[in-house]
Amino acid sequence: MRDTRVEVASSTPARAVGRWLIKHPRSVGTTAVLTPAVVLVGYQAALITAGAAVLAGASWRVLDAPTFDRFAGRLLRAWWRRWAVYHRQWLRILVACNLTTSDHKGAVLVPRLRRVRSTWVWDTLFIDLAKGQQPEDIGGVLDRIANSFRARSASLRVLGPGRIAVDLQRREPFDEMPIPLAPLAESTAVERLGQVELGRDEYGRDFALDLLKRDLHVLLAGATGAGKGSWLWGLLRSVAPLIRAGVVRVWMIDPKGGMEFGAGRDLFHRFAADDTTGLKVLREYTSVLDARKIVLGNQGVRAATPSAETPLELLICDELAAMTAYTSRDIKGEFETLLSKALTQYRAVGGRIIAATQEPTKDVVPMRGLFPTKIALRVDQASYVDMCLGEGVRDLGAFADKIPDYMPGVAYLKRDGRREALRVRAAYTADDDIAELVELVTSPGTVSPIRRPIGDDATAPARDGWADTDFEDLEDDEPEEIAYFDGDDEDEEIA
Ligand SMILES: Nc1ncnc2c1ncn2[C@@H]1O[C@H](COP(=O)(O)OP(=O)(O)OP(=O)(O)O)[C@@H](O)[C@H]1O
Ligand SMILES: [Mg+2]
To answer: For binding ATP, which residues are annotated in this chain's numbering (predicted)?
Structure first.
């Protein structure tokens, strides 16, 4: 066990220096590399190189803050905050918060700050407790710690015996960031499906889903009032011109009696307001796409783009639990089987599924691994975060359970292939905006009728419509892999 004493009686200067060197391998390594380099090239060349590096870093930060933050900023910030903020004030604040103990010789023992990790919003302090302490000792004074470090809030995680992490929320980017609702688009270009605008991310950038390549199926989890409905309406609004043109067909299952999406009934190709009809809609959905699969397969079509002949079939299921948990065994069984089939088989032929649930548990979403994109809005329990986003994502800073209830629409979004989640907020679609949306889609002049006979699909002249996307690529392709920074696992561990 590490010695957490402030002053170690038996310490000699040599031992103290030795201990410092062992404890700071990065600082020692950097000095060991830089010193000979400076000697070799001369201090002027070294200074010029350092200056150029700082300039390059600053330009990168100005031009693309998110990637700078991902690859360099968070490391620098963690390092800087560790030394300039946490380490400098550690003893003072811990003594002030009464978080010290003493041993039999009267030496004062304090918890040890092992490392600091930093994301855009949160700092995490990894701490070894002092002898005689338990996590509750820290848990009882979290507010005092947060205030002392000028953080908005603090929370505690127990990592193991004698080890805890304290998460400090430094900022709330959405406090001051307006999230305007994009005006209803006119363009019916299919490429717009790759840029379904919904809101902004934590860096203030516009945020969009890519229904063509990356966000093929999306799972949304959020407690009641978290803003699931607003995300789904936002998505419908963003693809409205394509719905109007018949390039996107929406199959809506709203098992809450149509309370949430009944207002948009006219937008939908199929609409179900209860579980029995919901199952029928899914049955029909799968039979349409099965037929399309066979037709396109027989024609040897490999390249496809959604079109009026072979539309993107967007199945939206709000309150998934009503179809997979709180319903009869027969409905549940068949619905789960068909949904899993749809999630695995129809990506290449234009099947997209968006499902929303309050509880992302295994009972409700046994097929959650089949959604390449997961979005956690405010959830009721910490365990729901990893259930929705994946194992260990919460520990990396996706604290969806800590999204305040006065911030509906805020969420953490995690794509397959990305290690960390992105904090985003959807714009709010009010009732008037919904009315405007329905008006746009159903107004005279609609290019093709929203409800066309189902048989059209199986016999559609697919070659005309599906012209540019590689089917096999889509089917084989896992959603686009994002290149990671080498040493991603270690990168936030500073000093
Ligand atoms: N993006 C947003 N920005 C601002 N306010 C929002 C946003 N989304 C939702 N709200 C507010 O939160 C309320 C609840 O949102 P919503 O109905 O979308 O929640 P929900 O997750 O669908 O809840 P439930 O599970 O009960 O259906 C809305 O009436 C609105 O006032
Ligand atoms: Mg809802």
So the answer is: 222-229
Instruction: Report d(CA 201, CA 7) in Å as an integer.
Output: 46
188-194, Cβ contacts within 8 angstroms, sequence gap of 24 or more: 188/241, 188/242, 188/244, 188/245, 188/247, 188/447, 190/242, 190/247, 190/305, 190/306, 190/307, 192/238, 192/239, 192/241, 192/242, 193/239, 193/242, 193/248, 193/306, 193/312
224 Cβ below 6 A of ligand 1: yes
Task: State pTM to two decimals.
Answer: 0.80
Q: How far is the CA of 224 from the centre of ligand 2 (A)?
A: 7
Fill in the amino acid letter for 238.
Answer: S
Q: Identify which of 312, 309, 322 has the alpha carbon closest to the alpha carbon of residue 356.
A: 322
Residue 414 marked in a binding site: no
Residue nearest to atom 25 of ligand 1 (CA): 224
> Does ligand 1 come within 6 angstroms of the Cβ of 357?
no
Question: Which of 223, 166, 151, 230 lies closest to 409, judged by CA?
Answer: 230
The CA-atom distances, in angstroms, between 4 and each of 1, 101, 113, 196 are 9, 10, 10, 52
What is the 359 CA–ligand 2 centroid distance (Å)?
12
Angstrom distance (rounded) from CA 411 to CA 416: 16
H or E, element range at 411? strand 410-415
- Band of residue 183 on the pLDDT scale cut at 50, 70, 90: confident
Which residue segments constitute the domains of the chain, with CATH numbers given?
Answer: 82-171 (3.30.980.40), 190-476 (3.40.50.300)
Question: Which residue from 345, 353, 355 is spatially nearest to 375, judged by alpha carbons?
Answer: 355
Beta strands at 410-415 and 422-426: parallel, antiparallel or unpaired: antiparallel
Is 226 one of the annotated binding-site residues?
yes
Amino acid at 230: S
The pLDDT assigned to 489 comes to 39
Question: pLDDT tens, 91-110?
Answer: 999 999 999 999 888 899 99
Query: How far does residue 377's CA lie from ligand 2's centre (Å)?
Result: 12
Q: Confirm or reject: Cβ of 51 under 6 Å from ligand 1.
A: no
Q: Give yes or no for residue 260 having a pLDDT over 60.
A: yes
Contact 222, 379 (CB under 8 A): yes
Strand ranges (DSSP E) for 227-370? 248-253, 270-272, 312-317, 351-357
Contact 359, 219 (CB under 8 A): no
Cβ(228) – ligand 1 distance below 6 Å: yes
Instruction: Say yes or no: CB of residue 222 within 6 Å of ligand 1.
Output: yes
User: Ligand 1 atom 17: the closest Cα is on which residue?
Assistant: 229
